[in-house]
Amino acid sequence: MNSNHIDGKAVAARLREDVALTIASLSVTPTLAVVLVGDDPASQVYVGNKVKFSQAVGMNSVERRLPAETTEADVVETVRALNADPDVDGILVQLPLPAHIDSDRVIAEIDPDKDVDGLTEISAGRLSLGKPGLRPCTPTGCVILAKEALGDLSGKHCVIIGRSILVGKPAALLFLQQNCTVTVAHSRTDNLPVVCRGADILVSAVGRPNMVKGDWIKAGACVIDVGINRVADASRKSGSRLVGDVDFAEAEPVAGAITPVPGGVGPMTIACLLRNTVLAACARRDLPVPDGLSI
Ligand SMILES: Nc1nc(=O)c2c([nH]1)NC[C@@H]1CN(c3ccc(C(=O)N[C@@H](CCC(=O)O)C(=O)O)cc3)C=[N+]21
Predict the structure, then answer these.
(1) Domain map (residue ranges) of the chain
(2) Separation of alpha carbons 6 and 148, rounded Å
(3) Which residue lies with its CA nearest to atom 21 of ligand 1?
């Protein structure tokens, strides 16, 4: 691995180790519940990984697999039962849900104190107000990786491309909390390459393969690539491969530090989910934030 690559797999493994050590020191075993509706193969892989890693760190894992034709009312009922179960610390409803189900309605049912995805209105409000609460996993992973490369982020200009509820917006608030100067750019931003060239930290969360070019990047900048895009590749047995939003070949020689895809932000998302589950387990019992899990 090149010296300016940020090794998300290694940082995630370290975070999972910290999670495992924390769990070993607690008098309770945190429990993560995952709700999966339907049989989208990509979702099955993520859910499988979540279950595998939660068990590896010594956490209990509960799965609720429901058929694709499950009604919205039945999914809501499943979430309510997990809310009411005192042994369940974290609830994740895998997205996207089948088209006949309103995911906003389902997410609104999740007890905010068990909302390990940080997606409820209460969690978003707590983040926005700077109050304690559960933060979305992917943006948290971005902050941890930027700190891995740069240390203290105070005063850095962070440009985020993308304003999604899942990544862009919460990332802006989390980098602001790190005392960054934050710019949120998006599809209507004028002179996007010029805006990006002002960034000390460039976070791309768009979902367009190879969109961010080398000349969009300030020399020495830290580049965090959230995009996970599958593109055709006839040279692969599978016929495809994953690429980020950043044109890696162009960006790598310019950047001071850069996350690869795969092996960058993706593994951090799952590690942060496990971290959130431990944080939820502690907060629900009025225990302090464990040493080693603060960022
Ligand atoms: N409620 C909810 N919360 C989520 O956080 C959520 C979700 N729904 N639905 C699906 C997306 C997608 N997602 C990923 C997590 C890890 C990798 C990951 O670890 N990727 C590996 C590569 C995996 C591969 O090779 O296929 C990597 O980037 O290195 C990818 C994608 C979480 N999501």
Answers:
(1) 27-112, 137-266
(2) 8
(3) 266
pLDDT at site 263: 97
Strand segments, DSSP code E, in 113-250 are 157-161, 181-185, 201-204, 222-225, 229-232, 240-243
Mean predicted confidence (pLDDT) in 21-40? 95
CATH code, residues 27-112: 3.40.50.10860
- The C-alpha atoms of residue 179 and residue 166 are separated, in whole angstroms, by 21
DSSP annotation of 225 reads E
Q: What pTM value is reported for the model?
A: 0.97
Q: Which atom of ligand 1 is nearest to the CA of 242?
A: 25
Closest approach atom of ligand 1 to CA 263: 29
| 154 marked as part of a ligand binding site | no
As for the ipTM of the complex, it is 0.97
User: Is the CB–ligand 1 distance for residue 267 below 6 Å?
Assistant: yes
pLDDT in tens, 216-271: 999 999 999 999 999 999 999 999 999 999 999 999 999 999 999 999 999 999 99
* Unique residue bearing structure tokens 């609720």: 64
Helix, strand, or coil (residue 235): coil
Q: Which CATH code, of 3.30.300.130, 3.40.50.1980, 3.30.70.360, 3.40.50.720, is assigned to 137-266?
A: 3.40.50.720
Q: Tell me, using a 6 A CB cutoff, whether residue 95 lines ligand 1.
A: yes
Burial of 118 (0-12, 13-18, 19+ CB in 10 A): buried
